[in-house]
Design brief:
By secondary structure, the protein is an alpha/beta fold. About 45% of the residues lie in helices and about 10% in strands. Mean pLDDT is about 80; it is low at about 1-20, about 185 and about 280-295.
């Protein structure tokens, strides 16, 4: 049975993203974390247990093994934003797993994995250090200071790193809006009103590539922070900052998404706080600038 595609609201006032693969794991996690028994939890647990054998999953097996009805399966798919179980299954191969498990050698022992992670971390740190200069940090800090409305746009798998940055900017007297996919709500609405700076964080470049084409025609200044985005994707932005020059699109062991992004935004918040301090009160920046909403 097919499902009606859910409506995600008015698309006229901003940019809509609806790439399910970026938020699917987060939605399933939120269902598991609800801590309640129910059809959705039973289905989620069954799917997770059989993720590696998704080709064998069908409505009949779910109803039998998870002890739910066919209508419960339809409602579950609808909640996740899919029209059918087949469509949901097809997305499993596109899931953005933490640490990019698809590129991890399953035959490595723990000690071998730890040794490889240490090497990757040192390589990443050296590369980021060589590419993220004080001048670059000054440039980014100045962009944030000069724009009244600043928005960070990212997927959920890096939003945790950016939440701390957002709160540190509050400490500096600067409001930065973090726009990420909420659990259960795959699309994102991007306000690109006058005097806005939109900073897109996309390590692999896939998220930046999937942005709605209408974003490119908006007046907001658009900045990309990435490690492996193609030059074609970067060309849509006013400025692109690269954490790596390898350009293969593979974040082995997730060192760039987990550690490089954290390192960069830690430096950026510190640079902003020290550069835009108010005399007599060095920990806070100039007047708080609240994003204005243009009707």
């Amino acid at each position: 049975d097919s499902l009606n595609e859910p409506s995600f609201g008015d698309r006229s006032r901003g940019i809509i993203l609806s790439n399910h693969s970026f938020g699917l794991l987060n939605i399933i996690s939120s269902i598991i974390n609800e801590g309640r028994d129910g059809n959705d939890v039973a289905i989620a647990r069954y799917l997770i247990s059989n993720l590696r054998n998704s080709e064998a999953i069908n409505v009949s097996t779910i109803t039998e093994k998870a002890h739910v009805t066919r209508s419960a399966v339809r409602r579950f798919c609808n909640r996740l934003g899919y029209q059918s179980l087949s469509e949901l299954k097809n997305s499993f191969s596109q899931l953005v797993f933490p640490s990019d498990f698809r590129h991890r050698d399953p035959n490595l022992s723990f000690s071998e994995y730890r040794a490889e992670l240490d090497v990757r971390m040192m390589e990443m740190y050296a590369e980021v250090e060589s590419r993220i200069s004080d001048t670059l940090l000054d440039e980014l800090a100045n962009e944030i200071a000069q724009h009244r409305n600043v928005e960070l746009l990212c997927t959920n798998n890096v939003s945790g790193n950016l939440t701390r940055f957002q709160q540190e900017m509050f400490f500096a007297g600067k409001v930065v809006r973090l726009n990420t996919q909420e659990n259960g709500k795959p699309p994102m609405h991007v306000e690109t009103y006058h005097d806005s700076l939109v900073i897109v964080v996309s390590v692999s470049g896939m998220f930046a590539r999937e942005l709605d084409e209408r974003m490119w025609t908006r007046t907001a200044k658009k900045v990309l922070i990435t490690a492996f985005s193609s030059k074609d994707t970067a060309s849509h932005f006013d400025k692109a900052y690269y954490l790596s020059d390898r350009g293969n699109g593979i974040d082995e062991l997730g060192v760039y998404s987990k550690y490089a992004i954290t390192y960069l935004f830690d430096l950026l918040s510190s640079r902003y706080i020290t550069r835009y301090k108010t005399p007599g009160n060095p920990l806070f920046g100039p007047a708080v600038s609240w994003p204005e909403i243009i009707e």
